[in-house]
């Protein structure tokens, strides 16, 4: 019976019972009304659950109670960059315009898509708007894949780690992934090789999201040699403690992996100090963002003294306060 028919039946029952109540005054005449009302409300509750399962009802959920999916594609750096801060400020100013996707599990709601929106709402202390999706693991993965297809900010590294997790869990096989994603066998192979990079190497890169598929796969293949792996892990630990830009970190790791000498940055803006006869007295250059003065070998002591005597005046002319 449809809800419309149940409501019509309820109206008829109310009229019928009201007439009999006037005739007999019996309180028992209310029992059919209660039964009809229960039937209507039970039907409405079932309808509401059906709409929720179809994703047609939006939910306000406590972000602190949501569980991240094991197939999450976001790297930790995605929750600490400028783009994330802009997302937080946008939700603060305009509200959450796009709901996240969740599915119901025995442990509560699991996030399918929208991990950064959840973290932004958690930081702001506000509920997160969610759409419930009834899906098994395969359906969950396909939903994430469909969302990723329209996102420009998902990196190759994040996609590679997600695909590797899907295969490891046995949710889909390689053929199914290639069909769902439109990947060639070679492209999928390179992504999976990229996903094999050890966490220590990823930490050495700092934020791995700029890493290209070809570069990451190449580095991962070099690590198959135990001796190379040991060298690269040692260099990665050194880089993780520093603050070099991503390109320099990657260059140093590849250089060590290939067994070449450590790369040295080319001098930039080199200035040469010469004598009147053309002899090179000193070279002023830059290394790692710092000025570097190199004196020519074999200078007589008087010449070295004259250079250092001239430095204070040169610094003063640059606007620096230099003591005598």
UniProtKB/TrEMBL annotation:
Matching CDD domains, A to Z?
A: RepB_like_N (cd16405)
| A Pfam family hit | SoPB_HTH
What name is this protein filed under?
ParB-like N-terminal domain-containing protein
Which top-rank group of organisms is this from? Bacteria
Question: What InterPro entries does the entry give?
Answer: Chromosome_partition/occlusion, ParB/RepB/Spo0J, ParB/Sulfiredoxin_sf, ParB_N, RepB_N, SoPB_HTH
GO annotation, cellular component aspect: chromosome
Name a biological process GO annotation: chromosome segregation
Record-annotated ParB-like N-terminal domain positions? 59-149
Q: Which GO terms describe its molecular function?
A: DNA binding
Which family, according to UniProt?
A: Belongs to the ParB family.
Q: Which organism is it from?
A: Rhodospirillum centenum (strain ATCC 51521 / SW)
């Amino acid at each position: 019976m449809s809800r419309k028919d149940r409501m019509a039946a309820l109206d008829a029952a109310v009229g019928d019972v009201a007439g009999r109540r006037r005739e007999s005054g019996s309180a028992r005449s209310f029992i059919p009304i209660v039964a009809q009302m229960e039937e209507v409300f039970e039907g409405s509750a079932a309808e509401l659950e059906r709409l929720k399962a179809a994703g047609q009802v939006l939910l306000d959920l406590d972000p602190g109670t949501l569980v991240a999916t094991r197939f999450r594609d976001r790297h930790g750096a995605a929750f600490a960059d400028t783009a994330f801060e802009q997302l937080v400020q946008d939700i603060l100013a305009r509200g959450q315009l796009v709901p996240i996707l969740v599915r119901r599990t025995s442990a509560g709601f699991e996030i399918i898509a929208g991990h950064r929106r959840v973290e932004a709402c958690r930081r702001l202390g506000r509920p997160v708007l969610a759409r419930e999706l009834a899906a098994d693991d395969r359906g969950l993965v396909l939903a994430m894949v469909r969302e990723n297809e329209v996102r420009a900010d998902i990196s190759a590294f994040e996609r590679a780690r997600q695909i590797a997790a899907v295969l490891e869990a046995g949710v889909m096989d390689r053929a199914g992934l290639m069909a769902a994603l439109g990947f060639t066998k070679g492209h999928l192979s390179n992504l999976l090789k990229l996903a094999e990079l050890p966490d220590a190497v990823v930490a050495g890169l700092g934020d791995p999201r700029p890493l290209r598929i070809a570069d990451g796969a190449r580095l991962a293949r070099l690590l198959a040699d135990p001796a190379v792996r040991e060298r690269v892990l040692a260099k990665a630990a050194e880089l993780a403690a520093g603050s070099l830009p991503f390109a320099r970190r990657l260059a140093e790791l590849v250089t060590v992996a290939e067994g070449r000498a450590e790369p040295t940055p080319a001098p930039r803006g080199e200035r040469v100090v010469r004598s009147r006869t053309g002899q090179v007295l000193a070279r002023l250059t830059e290394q790692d963002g710092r000025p570097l003065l190199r004196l020519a070998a074999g200078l007589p002591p008087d010449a070295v003294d004259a250079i250092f005597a001239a430095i204070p005046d040169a610094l003063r002319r640059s606007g620096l306060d230099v003591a005598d």
